[in-house]
Fold each of these.
Amino acid sequence: MKKVYTKVTDAMNFYEGNDPTALAKNYGTPLYVYNERILRQRCRDLKEMVTYPKFVVDYSAKANSSLAFLQIVRSEGLEVDAMSPGEIFIEKQAGFAPDQIFYIGNNVSAEEMQYAIDANVVISVDSLSQLEQLGQLAPGHEVAVRFNPGVGAGHHEKVITAGKKTKFGIEPKYIPQVRSILEKYDLKLIGINQHIGSLFMTGEAFVASIAALFEIAKQFQGLRFVDMGGGFGIPYHKEDGEAPLDLKELGAAIDKALYKFAEEYGEQIALRIEPGRYISAESSVILSEVHSVKHNHDKKFVGCDCGFNVLQRPIMYDSYHGIEVYREEEKDSASEETVTVVGNICESGDILAKDRTLPEVFKGDILGILDAGAYGFTMASNYNNRLRPAEVLIRENGEVVLIREREVLEDLLRHQIALKDL
Ligand code: LLP
């Protein structure tokens, strides 16, 4: 293979000696490729971030809930959160025990809540009416309550989940009402939780939010845990040298806050985080084939098969993903050029990268779309009746295994009922 532009994956030894153009040929494109070693390392980074003895890392499965992926996360000793009965179901299939699953619902139906009750998982509610609903369904049950600490953070307004402009959490001023519903139904409050938003690269907002959360926690006796939420960011602009989150510095600040809280609370209760992106994003690259290169007016477009049905983040949040170029033939790119990389969906918003500088790209090249392991496959769809891609995992010994088959056309008919009387 000709390595045209492979700076980031080379530095991480992402392909562990495999040739991405051969992977693309063997498994087809678009293809989600995962690296087990990197995934395991990210789990360990967070587990070792603090010294506080009862620190628990819950992986937030919404970022990536492929079965094999969850199995690896479990084998690293992490627990998980869940956002839906579907996530509870798949997590159990991956081997998580009910007490390792934390269901953080939002506006869930009575049926969904009942599913979580029957599954025996710990349930968090984030409104007074949902607390009331749990009380009616299961008086005497244990419950956690999600508060809004008033501090939010995130890479886009759509993913800031605390502060003044969000549907999530209960405002601390409603604590008296929380208490009275707990009492009315004899519910036992065993934890409180928050999630301020997704993707911070410095820790100030997170540290401020946990201080606010701990103030709330101190108003409740007998808690088993406080869950501080996720949001730990990763550097998407790696090829420009963007630095990773300084876990050492952030870990030290968090550690200090944890010990201080435990002392004030009078007990070293479990203190948890629930990161998704930090654990999963960097362990995946999407391989996508270039099917056309063209000029439209004064713009050069590189058209590939990674439409927003495969990776939604750019169209949804204007997100940046680094792009590498791999080529099977020994053919040189003349020079760097500015191109717009687009997918194959019939919308002009189907843009993967606008005005990106890349080495000259040819039809038949394979693009590597970096940092795609978080909110990549989980947000993929069948829009335009396109098939969701396959996923392969590069094991630690370099062996490549298929962990999800590419969909086939017949899958598009599953659950559809044709009319018989036309
Ligand atoms: N806990 C709760 C309650 C959450 O809602 C989320 C993410 C997390 C934990 C994990 O956050 P993380 O550590 O991954 O930042 N689709 C968007 C991100 C949406 C995040 C939704 N909630 C994206 O692609 O950027």
Amino acid sequence: MEADLNIQEVNAMPRIGDNAPDFEAVTTTGKIKFSEFAIDKWVIMFSHPADFTPVCTTELTGFAKRKGEFDALNTQLLGLSIDSIHSHLGWVQNVRENTGVYFDFPIIADIDMKVAKLYGMLQPNESETAAVRAVFFIDPKKKIRLVMYYPLNVGRNMNEILRSLEALQISDKHKVAMPLDWKKGDKVIVGPPKTLDELNARLADDSVEKVDWYLAMKNI
Ligand code: BEZ
């Protein structure tokens, strides 16, 4: 019941650019302290509403099947739901028996909702007992770089999660920005000039493809 929830706690919602809040938790692969977890890696931390439910089963199956692509992007997966560790283990084993897909990444058993509240995953007007479908993109400095929240009744898009992760990494590496619908191999946006000297340099620069001085693209 909402009356039982501490509204200040529930309203905590880490934002882009914030340091990822630290926590300790029990997971399906053992205990973790987040600040010491996946050192030097990106982390995709995602919540699902409940074990043994259909949409969640398709989503975690998607993460498991494409784990190799996350590994290739130096990224650790970390799941979470407000379920017990026994429930998680039973579900993982059930899906493995039924489909052969094995959720071998850690899944937090957040039975006291501590982490869900810390990360704004508990959104009481959607559900007071189940986490919404959140995805936090956390960089190797443990900074939050992108946040997605989906409701209980709509599954996420794995292509978009991977596309966004790759976009963040390439943007960091090349100091560029990504246009609408960018995907790997497409041109990227070079930042607009910030001074008149930079403006003049941009106008004279034939190495970038210019729509105008403030919108220029290049291949990387
Ligand atoms: C599902 O994963 O199917 C689901 C979970 C909680 C509420 C609604 C749907």
Amino acid sequence: MSFENLGLSPKVLAAVKAAGYETPTPIQEQAIPFAVKGRDVLGIAQTGTGKTASFVLPMLTRLERGRARARMPRSLILEPTRELAAQVAQSFEAYGAQHNLTVALLIGGVSFVDQNRKLDRGADVLIATPGRLLDHFERGRLLLTGVEVLVVDEADRMLDMGFIPDIERIVKLTPFTRQTLFFSATMPPEIQRLTEAFLSNPERIEATPPSTTGENISQFMLFTPCDPKQKRAALRKAISGQDVTNGIIFCNRKRDVRVVQKSLRKHGFDSAELHGDLDQHVRLETLGGFRDGKVKLLVASDVAARGLDIPAVSHIFNYDVPFNAEDYVHRIGRTGRAGREGMAITLVTPQCRQLIGAVEQLTKQKFEWLGDAPDDADWEARPRGARDAGGRRADGAKRARPAGRGQPAQRAKQKSAPKPARAGKPAPGNAAPKKANARRSPCDSGKKSANNALGDNVPAFLRRPV
Ligand code: AMP
């Protein structure tokens, strides 16, 4: 199948050629013919599949006819984060180079003045995060009754970020006759409900099965102690043990993003941080630096990094196992994009057994360990707040007993294992005292341990696993 057979306009085909794309990706091949005809599309696709072009290209074709009116955008694209919105705006610039369309980007963290000016001039394409869009609407700066095409992108992320009520409100402000293109990497029940409410007889397209991780990404677990210092040392060792061109290090908490980044810098690693507390300009600048290869390692939180298109990331390091199993899929989807090889290494502390179980259950694979796989005695009580793919507590996750010490670890893939980089695992004889220490540290639970103030005099009932 070639781009010429998808029903795109000559101008769009020229832009595709200029971008150097030779053949459409599976999601483009399936979605574009329906989208150019004005049909609703429900696309289930993970990032890196060419999803953005699958809605931008048909939109450009459809918007070639007609003109924008002041404060009445003709199309609306909703994105969960500012970075994603900015990235989609860049795609419009690239693919729409030959079109004379006005694109307005409405994101938080930047001044309203320029955004108002663009709205007043009339926007063919409005790309927005839900909060800033509603701010403009409430100030009477825009009307959504002229929206011909609505795109809801990364819907499952919108759900995680609590945007669903905003999305429902925004969709009600658009005309019933609109075309809706709806994308989500996964399809939890809440998102299923939305698709039923928003879409009319949609063409359902599944580019990859939901919640799978790329075949071209080698994935490894690394058992590490809970102690933050040892964990950071393990991370450094893991990075140094690999041939890292550039990599993203994901932390569950913003606080840790900063600490890990500072520590990496102190130890001579070229790194920068990306999280939601940073000023928008700093975030975009950092991202630009990483994309251009000026920064080698990006330490990031999930929210800041979700869906970012950085074409050539060689490694992903999960400093923490994500609380939400689906975030694992999104994190490692930052590497191995557009068919490249990638590697993901996840640091797993003794409290993370259920979290890893939830990830294995979701991705339907058993992971290979760098170094020895932990045995039953190495694990501790599950962290609070662990959730499985459906948002349920993950403590019910059933999992085969992990391979014991000295036995071969379960293989996720039969690829050649990289250099073992396991760091700091307690020696068998020392296991018990180390665990007692680990139990007192906050580790991955995200909660300060109630035992902290009691030193070694912890009553037995407090030591019982929750
Ligand atoms: P996305 O999933 O939209 O974030 O796209 C992932 C990457 O694939 C981006 O860097 C695109 O430029 C690239 N891409 C999109 N479509 C194609 C295509 N048909 N051929 C080659 N690369 C593509």
